[in-house]
Amino acid sequence: MYFQTFVATILALHAMAAPSPSGDSEQGSGGEVVIPNDHPLIHFHGRWDASPGTWWAGSGFKLHVQDLSSLTLNLGPHTTSPLASIGVSVDYAPFYQVNVSEGVNVVPLTGNVTQDTESKSSQGKKTSVVRVNVEGWQDNRINLETIVLNKGAELLPYTPSKLAFQFIGDSLSAGQFLPQGVDQAWPFLTGEFFKAEHNVNAQPGAALSDIVSYGNEHGVSYQYFRTEDTGYFDTTDHNFTTPWNFLRDRPEPTHLVVHIGANDASQNVTAEAFVKVFTTFLGRLRGLYPTAPFFVFTPWGWPNADGSVSYYYPGAHELVVQERHEAGDLNTFLVNTTGWVTWEDVFPANQHPNVPGHQKIAGLFEHWLQSWGLRPEKEWATAL
Ligand SMILES: *[C@@H]1O[C@H](CO)[C@@H](O)[C@H](O)[C@H]1NC(C)=O
Ligand SMILES: *[C@@H]1O[C@H](CO)[C@@H](O)[C@H](O)[C@H]1NC(C)=O
Ligand SMILES: *[C@@H]1O[C@H](CO)[C@@H](O)[C@H](O)[C@H]1NC(C)=O
Ligand SMILES: *[C@@H]1O[C@H](CO)[C@@H](O)[C@H](O)[C@H]1NC(C)=O
Ligand SMILES: *[C@@H]1O[C@H](CO)[C@@H](O)[C@H](O)[C@H]1NC(C)=O
Q1: 285 and 329 share a domain?
Q2: Same structural domain for residues 259 and 340?
Q3: Using one digit for the tens of pLDDT, what is the confidence trace for 157-188?
Q4: Going by CA atoms, what residue is nearest to atom 14 of ligand 5?
Q5: CB-based contacts of 309, cutoff 8 Å, min separation 6
């Protein structure tokens, strides 16, 4: 009895703590399938450090699995304590929230995956797509050790969408104050509408200018090029920042959207300085993404209870786009969001868009993009 327990423990420890260097899956003690964090068929997206652990709202991974009935995430010590909230979507159904912590996390699965194996085999093999991402702009670190699937499950290749959005912004894009964080924010919703891959690098409180702003040690014009969001500064286990290797963004972004400036304005950065830093930033992004169209949002402003809207940097974003055009970059477009957001669309306490407000913004931008010429994919690239 003692011996059996001992052997089982050794197997379990081996399965959990010692991923094979080749990245192959292994069999756990109960026949379950243990996927090490370096398995080539895990489709990572967003920003992951070497641990590997997430930074920035929306970072996560996708799995394409045959005969899935259970999913467990074993998370390491760099996971946010006491918990990180993740969004989970099975078979492209809406994302739901699951709270995870360091240690063993059984992720509840919705939909047809929970059917027993017998009824499934009578219908033939069933494949599932599971998408997972951290929801928060803070408390958003999951440190992935292994993924454990039910016995008989098999990891298949995930084919990413041909469309891939890269969003860059501040609290207005990060989903700050929303119950499900970035998963309910307009960038995420827009990406889903187009059946696209989507990464969101948005930092509440941060200016575009590389200045200290509302608890952010750096501005987005610096932090975008780093693996970590500015939360690194407040951590004790990872109090440093590392360069991001843009070759890891696969697929490469096909469409880039920037909505920024609210915090520069609040920090009294002059319009002239803001235009300069924005134009330089876009030039640097153009070096990374030679062919992607860039979309620059004008501010939708801060709606007030009396129905007025406080706009900042009037004309500045127009000037940024104009300067890019004059530099020969005609693949940069102004998205005029004037009037998109009213008092009804925001939380009265902080004037940030509420859940229906984000849906409204997403709808307006989706319409804008379709008028511009972009069509949603007919099907997700990884079919079920
Ligand atoms: C996750 O944790 C947050 C913070 O404690 C809580 O508000 C939320 O209800 C939890 N979500 C679920 C699905 O349990
Ligand atoms: C579950 O499977 C049945 C039969 O294959 C299908 O009609 C139904 O739409 C599926 N439901 C979900 C939530 O995928
Ligand atoms: C992180 O390091 C910086 C110096 O680079 C220091 O000012 C800051 O207090 C540190 N944060 C923590 C939480 O230790
Ligand atoms: C910006 O300027 C306004 C008006 O002069 C001032 O009240 C405010 O304190 C300044 N804010 C910062 C962060 O310097
Ligand atoms: C943006 O839209 C507003 C409201 O329709 C309009 O007044 C303004 O002229 C537009 N700005 C540009 C640059 O087209």
Answers
A1: yes
A2: yes
A3: 999 999 999 999 999 999 999 999 999 999 99
A4: 336
A5: 300, 301, 302, 303, 339, 341, 342
Structurally, how many domains does the chain consist of?
Answer: 2
Tell me how far the alpha carbon of residue 86 lies from the centroid of ligand 3, in angstroms: 27
Contacts 24+ apart (CB under 8 A), 349-357: 350/177, 351/302, 351/303, 351/304, 352/171, 352/172, 352/176, 352/177, 353/172, 353/186, 354/177, 354/178, 355/178, 355/179, 355/184
Tell me which ligand sits closest to the C-alpha of residue 126: 2
Strands (E), the chain: 26-27, 33-36, 43-48, 54-66, 71-75, 84-90, 96-100, 103-107, 127-134, 144-149, 154-156, 164-169, 197-202, 255-259, 294-297, 302-303, 309-310, 332-335
Residue type present at position 266: S
Quick one: which atom of ligand 4 is closest to the CA of 268? 1
Question: Which residue carries 């530099």 as its tokens?
Answer: 327
User: In whole angstroms, how far apart are CA 247 and each of 4, 213, 339, 381?
Assistant: 47, 29, 38, 21
Write down the pTM of the prediction. Answer: 0.91
Separation of alpha carbons 57 and 54, rounded Å: 9
181 in the same domain as 125 = no
pLDDT in tens, 358-383: 999 999 999 999 999 999 999 999 99
Q: How far apart are CA 360 and CA 349, in angstroms?
A: 19
Mean pLDDT of 287-303: 98
CA distance linking residue 282 with residue 131, whole number of Å: 30
CATH value at residue 77: 2.60.120.260
Ligand 4 site residues (CB inside 6 A) read: 267-268
